[in-house]
């Protein structure tokens, strides 16, 4: 199998940024309640992504396919940007770049029945930074699956959201206690040090 997965980003890197379900139309019950917190998280994720790209950290969008099995990720992005949906501001903030990776998922976890395992194996990832929505469902279940695969986890507290602050805090408490995740907010997360610490180890 070719080692050259992708354009200009490195084909191997020990740290990977996952953006989970942020390209999202939010056209579902409670989507209106989720939007304010998701928009705040999106602003922090956008800043974190810019920092990650400067360090050549690969960015992987892991996204629901909204049950559209004939769609591809570009169609999902186009839908969220151009169809007047509630989640359009999220897509505008986090519009994927041409050399970002993407994985479409059919269920909650980023790992369930997807190609993410294969992609992370090729990237030789050791540490994952998980961001997105919702903290208590898709992010939490993805973190659990990543923990079982023995990745070191970072879940920046300001880069995840739910439809209620108490739900977000409960999820963050769980990932810290059970999954040994670091929930340091993104502005305090030293990405360069994180990359160097992995290489040194």
What's the layout of helices and strands?
Blueprint: E1 15-20, H1 31-54, E2 59-64, H2 73-82, H3 88-93, E3 101-105, H4 116-123, E4 127-133, H5 138-148, E5 152-154, E6 160-161, H6 165-177, H7 191-200
Parallel strand pairs: 1-2, 1-4, 2-3, 4-5, 4-6
Outline the low-pLDDT stretches: 1-7
Radius of gyration: 16 Å
Instruction: Choose one word for the global shape.
Output: globular
Estimate the strand proportion: 5-15%
Question: How would you describe the overall organization of this protein?
Answer:
This protein has 201 residues and is of the alpha/beta class. 40% of the residues are buried. The radius of gyration is 16 Å and the shape is globular. The chain has helices spanning 31-54, 73-82, 88-93, 116-123, 138-148, 165-177, 191-200, and strands at 15-20, 59-64, 101-105, 127-133, 152-154, 160-161. The longest helix is centred in the N-terminal third of the chain and has 24 residues, at 31-54. It has 7 helices and 6 strands; from the N terminus they run E-H-E-H-H-E-H-E-H-E-E-H-H. Strands 1, 2, 3, 4, 5 and 6 form a 6-stranded parallel sheet that branches.
Key terms:
single chain; about 200 residues; alpha/beta; 6-stranded parallel beta sheet; 7 helices; 6 strands; globular
Give a quick rundown of the structure.
This protein is 41% helix and 14% strand. It has helices at 31-54, 73-82, 88-93, 116-123, 138-148, 165-177, 191-200, and strands at 15-20, 59-64, 101-105, 127-133, 152-154, 160-161.
